[in-house]
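Design a sequence for this backbone.
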């Protein structure tokens, strides 16, 4: 049976940036957040240190945060990407989801290439899902994440409109204009999507080695029924499916991962050190991506392992490209569910603004 494969070049374009230059490397050990960890845009670089007597205590360097704008420029020069997500809002009872189980509202993070930088704006490509554009409404609030190696800086921004950028090819690239932040805040190393004013919850993913790819076709059909039936049940309170929820193809043992980011043809996953050996022997995996409650049941899809690397905490980052077993229905279904997630989160944000 034929297969539809997404271009493996996507994985190289959407791996986390690995730019570790002198300014950022300085002081990597012993960085201690202080009251000025919110770095202002345009802040002067620290003056060269003056000679000190032996035994004098030297303050920890803050150059990684102070020079975030230089890092952003370097990412652009290397044709790199910014991460963006729609913010979630904490309710009156501080309900933001459980970071251990992944239950509750989650953040889908998109890697989008930086097309242009000006003094006041960042122009990035529109988010994509399996070759289809994911529409973000003008005026919507977003969270931007600058990624340099294992260091991350987060900031709030706003979608200021669409623009065309000349690419030197036959047609211009369509991008979205984001407001350049005045300041950013460095994320914690262990909880690398958490700062004092923002907490991102990454979706959970069940990963199982796919032992027989031919059995995925039935599992894809079952997954469509499972999700659509759950959506109907949310409305009517009744389930009509005769297929067991979570019907699986022929697979191996399950390990859990976090969905780090989404790009044009696949996803980036993060596994804890104790689970990373599950990716040593196999290339194809059956993934169940949990975007509940915005998608009524986990999305099942085949992912092919393209590249991996291990971070300083011994966690495994795995770049996965989606594959489909010759059935365009499931390709369209996955795109529809990702777009459904984005549309619902945007409606929630607009509803909140309307009630302020």
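Sequence:
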């Amino acid at each position: 049976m034929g297969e539809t494969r997404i271009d493996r070049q996507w994985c190289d374009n959407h791996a986390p940036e690995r730019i570790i230059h002198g300014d950022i490397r300085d002081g990597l050990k012993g960085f201690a957040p202080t009251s000025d960890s919110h770095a202002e845009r345009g802040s002067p670089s620290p003056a060269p240190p003056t000679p000190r007597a032996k035994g004098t205590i030297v303050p920890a360097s803050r150059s990684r945060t102070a020079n975030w704008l230089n890092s952003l420029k370097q990412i652009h020069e290397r044709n790199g990407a910014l991460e963006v997500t729609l913010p979630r809002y904490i309710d009156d009872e501080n309900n933001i989801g459980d970071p251990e189980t992944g239950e509750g509202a989650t953040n889908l993070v998109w890697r989008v290439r930086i097309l242009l930088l000006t003094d006041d704006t960042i122009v990035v490509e529109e988010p994509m899902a399996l070759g289809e554009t994911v529409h973000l409404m003008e005026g919507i609030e977003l969270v931007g994440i600058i990624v340099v190696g294992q260091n991350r800086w987060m900031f709030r921004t706003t979608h200021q409109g669409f623009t065309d950028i000349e690419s030197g090819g036959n047609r211009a690239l369509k991008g979205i204009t984001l407001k350049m932040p005045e300041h950013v805040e460095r994320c914690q190393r262990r909880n690398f999507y958490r700062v004092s004013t923002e907490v991102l919850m990454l979706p959970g993913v069940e990963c199982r080695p796919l032992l027989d790819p031919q059995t995925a076709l039935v599992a894809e059909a079952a997954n469509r029924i499972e999700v659509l039936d759950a959506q109907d049940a949310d409305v009517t309170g009744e389930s009509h499916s005769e297929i067991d929820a979570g019907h699986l193809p022929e697979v191996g043992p399950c390990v859990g991962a976090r969905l780090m980011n989404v790009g044009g043809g696949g996803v980036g996953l993060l596994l804890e050190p104790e689970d990373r050996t599950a990716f040593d022997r196999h290339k194809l995996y059956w993934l169940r991506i949990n975007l509940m409650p915005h998608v009524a049941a986990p999305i099942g899809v085949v992912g092919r392992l393209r590249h991996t690397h291990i971070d300083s905490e011994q966690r495994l980052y795995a770049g996965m490209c989606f594959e489909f077993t010759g059935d365009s229905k499931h390709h369209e279904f996955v795109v529809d569910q990702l777009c459904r997630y984005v549309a619902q989160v945007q409606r929630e944000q607009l509803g909140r603004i309307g009630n302020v």
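Residues 1-12, 14-38, 52-62, 90-103 have pLDDT under 50 and may be disordered.
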